[in-house]
Specification:
Elements lengths: L1 E2 L6 E4 L11 E4 L9 E10 L2 H8 L17 E8 L12 E4 L2 E3 L5 H4 L10 E2 L22 E5 L4 E2 L6 H4 L5 H11 L8 E5 L3 H12 L3 E6 L5 H7 L3 E4 L4 H5 L6 E6 L8 H4 L3 E9 L11 H6 L3 E4 L5 H14 L5 E5 L3 H9 L6 E5 L8
Parallel strand pairs: 11-12, 11-14, 12-13, 14-15, 15-16, 17-18
Antiparallel strand pairs: 1-5, 2-3, 4-5, 4-9, 4-18, 5-6, 6-10, 7-8
The chain binds zinc ion (2 copies).
Length: about 375
């Protein structure tokens, strides 16, 4: 075992459904019980993702029984302790990032194929019980904290060339859109790509897809984000307004791939299917609560696909980070001192980020 600093596990905990309104409480928490493949990480940065707000506010179910919730799953920091069997070649001093998944069973066919994000026993980075080793039964604690402990397999090295603050939003939001763009061949097989929603995920999807060589069209409700979308690399922009069919008429059969980054309570997928090229793919990366309604006729006639995609595996995160360095991609972030989290979280919920908030632990060496 090798240690640089003895970690003190303290974080901003949600204690009830009002946490996002500025009621996170700074308190000590119990980290997972130590296993020899774990690392302790001194947290410098943590992005705020929609799932944090959903969990904290009870959208994912009642918060009784899961409190205190230490959320945050776009974590970047420095390894301060490694066990006797670290993965990813981790050493003390290495900068790493941790996303929405912090463990998997290691035994199923998907884990063996290193598709850990498909493991039926995946452990989410906050509020979830670990299921292996000494840590079995420990609850995962996320990045709204000073230190993080978890399996080294899910702590991915951050390249030296990359500003670690910019790496934070990539760990969940970034990989969530990078994974389907890579999988469906953005820039090669998928030359014309539509991105629905210009927000935290959507803005990174535009950056990635255009850097991959695709022609990108942003699809948003109003004209408000047009200028930003163009700056991010989109060459087309559709403001849908309320009449989608009218807005889409001129774009029928034009997209090889559409990635939907917005998750309203219900989604009018039937209006979007005619936008797809034959064999085109419409891919959801978030959850629309109401079941989809559509007729199969237009889908079958154009041999089109409706798909879903969930985050990405650690190897995919590593490939994304390499790509970000090669293409000099910079997510648009606004930094908040993590001590100000009770101001940042209500602002996040209000829809203020342009386009991702990153919390900074200045006392741990994070830079504003
Ligand atoms: Zn997330
Ligand atoms: Zn598994």
């Amino acid at each position: 075992m090798s240690t640089a600093t003895e970690p003190v596990f303290k974080g901003w905990a949600g204690l009830d459904a009002k946490a996002c309104q500025g009621n996170l409480d700074f308190q000590s928490f119990e980290p997972k019980k130590w296993d020899e493949d774990d690392v302790d990480v001194k947290i410098l940065y943590c992005g705020i993702c929609g799932s944090d707000a959903s969990a904290l506010s009870g959208e994912w179910g009642p918060v009784d029984g899961v409190c205190p919730q230490v959320c945050g799953h776009e974590i970047v920091g420095e390894v301060v302790k490694v066990g006797s069997s670290p993965e990813n070649g981790l050493k003390v001093g290495q900068m790493v990032g941790i996303g929405a998944q912090c463990d998997s069973c290691r035994e199923c066919v998907d884990c063996k194929n290193h598709e850990e994000q498909c493991c039926p026993k995946m452990v989410i980075t906050f509020n979830s019980p670990f299921a292996r080793g000494n840590g079995k039964g420990s609850i995962s604690r996320g990045g709204f904290a000073k230190y993080w402990r978890g399996p080294s397999r899910f702590a991915v090295p951050i390249p030296d060339e990359l500003d670690p603050a910019l790496a934070a939003p990539l760990m969940c939001g970034g990989i969530t859109v990078f994974n389907p763009l890579e999988h469906y061949g953005a820039g090669t097989k998928a030359k014309n790509i539509g991105i629905v929603g210009v927000g935290g995920l959507g803005h990174m999807a535009i950056l990635f897809a255009s850097a991959m060589g695709a022609k990108v069209t942003a699809i948003s409700r109003s004209e408000a984000k047009k200028e930003d979308a163009i700056k991010l690399g989109a060459t087309g922009y559709i403001a849908t307004g309320d009449d989608l069919q009218a807005a889409f008429a001129a774009h029928a059969r034009s997209f090889d791939l559409i990635i939907c980054t917005s998750n309203p309570p219900e989604f009018p997928i039937a209006d979007y299917i005619p936008l797809l090229r034959p064999r085109g793919v419409f891919c959801f990366v978030g959850i629309v609560p109401k079941p989809l309604e559509f007729g199969l006729f237009p889908l079958v006639m154009s041999s089109a696909h409706i798909a879903g995609s969930n985050i990405g595996n650690p190897d995919g995160i590593a490939r994304m980070l390499k790509f970000v360095v090669e293409k000099n991609i910079k997510p648009w972030i606004q930094r908040w001192d993590m001590d100000e989290i009770n101001k940042a979280m209500p602002s996040f919920v209000n829809g203020d980020p342009r386009y991702r908030f990153v919390l900074v632990n200045t006392d741990n060496g994070g830079k504003m």
